[in-house]
Amino acid sequence: MDIVTPELLSIVVPLYNEEENVALLTQKIHESLSGYSYQIVYIDDFSTDRTKQVVKDMGDDKVHLLELKKNYGQSLALAAGLDYASGEYIITMDGDLQNDPSDIPQMLSFAINDEYDVVTGIRQKRKDSLVKKIPSKIANFLVRRVTKLDIKDNGCALKVFNKSIAKDLNLYGEMHRFITLLAHLEGAQIKQVPVKHHARHAGVSKYGLERVFKVVADMMLLLFIRKYFQRPIHLFGIFGFLMILLGVLINIYLLIVKLGFGEDIGTRPLLMFGMMFILAGIQLFTIGIVMELLIRTYYESQKKRPYRIKKVSVGGKTE
């Protein structure tokens, strides 16, 4: 089957202290995408080494450099790149040379010819330490069990997105780990393909075992977003109502005991629990209402982005 070549591709790569990798990565992208029309969008997440200077010194007209005003983290750096990218298809990858750009043409063929919205890689024979593999396995297990979405490798950064899906992804916090899941929630058709994986070329990994706790916290947030983000009153209101009902029933029981049998209820712990359930229920119900109002505000004020770009350079020259 002939591969239809899109008008423009955007390769989006967040960078943080990758001065020893970025020049070689650029070379490999050029070699792998010969014959394609593309732009490389590097996002410098406030690196403390010479990463941005190395990018500028290349003087490559295909290279666009976004310099962020401070270190926002990988998710917001990626969000900045996705917002800036103008390609018909948008490819994301890491800047440490562990992803192989030579896998992009095959993945792109699935996206174009088979009309998949997202094509995501499954890293073969991972060249990572256990410190990175263990949190990744936990994250993949949680996503499969909780969402029923059978993605084998959520942590693979090498992905090809249809532009319409990529532009609708609202990344924040540490949500880059679940970008495939976010695309799925937007209705994306997803294809998984095996891809090559290499040991880090230079520099040090930015991940540790603390990632396990971040994965669990982000998964809990995603569950809330998936089920209750648009109508939080359905979660907080129901729990609040049940707690109020339980508190009222307890107090009715105590009232019957007091009036019907003349027993003293003032010192009973059950009275305290009854009042606590009523008060806690009212608070939960109120939180639900407040969050409903916040959600309305959220949907009406989407123009502001959670990151700030200090400077944009193309071919080493500031725009």
Description of the structure:
The protein has about 325 residues and is of the alpha/beta class. It folds into two domains: about 10-230, Spore Coat Polysaccharide Biosynthesis Protein SpsA, Chain A (Alpha-Beta Complex), CATH 3.90.550; about 235-300. It is about 45% helix and about 15% strand. It has helices spanning about 20-30, 50-60, 75-85, 105-115, 130-145, 165-170, 180-185, 210-230, 235-260, 270-300, and strands at about 10-15, 40-45, 65-70, 90, 120-125, 160, 190-195, 310-315, 315-319. Strands 7-5-6-4-1-2-3-8-9 form a nine-stranded mixed beta sheet, sandwiched between helices. Strand 1, helix 1 and strand 2 form a beta-alpha-beta unit. It is elongated, with a radius of gyration of 25 Å. The two termini are about 40 Å apart. The relative contact order is 0.14.
Concise structural overview:
The chain has 319 residues and is α/β, with parallel strands linked by helices. The protein has 10 helices and 9 strands. The protein has 2 domains: 9-228, Spore Coat Polysaccharide Biosynthesis Protein SpsA, Chain A (Alpha-Beta Complex); 233-298.
